[in-house]
Amino acid sequence: MNYFKRAQIIGKTGSILILLTLPLSVMLSSCAETKTAQCQKIILITKKIAEESANNRDSTDPEKILTVAKAFEEAGQQVQALNLKDNQLITYQQELANIYDGNAEATRNIINAIKSKDILTAKLAQDQVRQIGKKEQLLITQMNQYCQDN
After folding, report:
1. Using an 8 Å Cβ cutoff, are 150 and 86 in contact?
2. How far is CA 11 from CA 2, 16, 20, 21, 60, in A?
3. Is residue 46 within 8 Å of 150, Cβ to Cβ?
4. Which residue in 83, 76, 21 sits closest to 45, CA to CA?
5. Domain ranges, ordered by start, for the chain
6. Which H, E and C letters describe the chain, residue by residue?
């Protein structure tokens, strides 16, 4: 086979390889979620739990309050189940899951204390919920800032 024919075959093969690898590389790069997409996953969960909490914030019905505790617990599980790649978002993910779990536990402690008429424990658990809420606000502010930075 002469040089010219060999160059044509290699040229065609190279073109075919480029045509085959181009879509593959586009597919692979689209599989890697961006930081923004990962942030959106967390934000959707935080918005949902914020709405649930706000809708029942002033409730005195123990069953509704327990529903909020369950919602926090589920939000913690949802956050923990996210498959994140960004190291800073993973840190936020773990902290947020802990905050939601702590809020669920403290909320249940309030209900149990009220049922047993233990006012001191109820007030302590209520203070714990407030402290957890402050941590949550700070964490979400930090996370939002991080997610907005490029």
Report:
1. no
2. 14, 9, 14, 15, 76
3. no
4. 76
5. 1-32, 33-148
6. CCHHHHHHHHHHHHHHHHHHHHHHHHHHHHHCCCHHHHHHHHHHHHHHHHHHHHHCCCCCCHHHHHHHHHHHHHHHHHHHHCCCCCHHHHHHHHHHHHHHHHHHHHHHHHHHHHHCCCHHHHHHHHHHHHHHHHHHHHHHHHHHHHHHCC
**Residue count of the chain:** 150
Q: Which residue has the tokens 């961006």?
A: 34
d(CA 77, CA 97): 7
pLDDT tens for 123-149 read 999 999 999 999 999 999 999 999 998
Question: Whole-prediction pTM value?
Answer: 0.75
The tens digit of pLDDT for each residue in 16-60 reads: 444 444 444 444 444 568 999 999 999 999 999 999 888 887 788
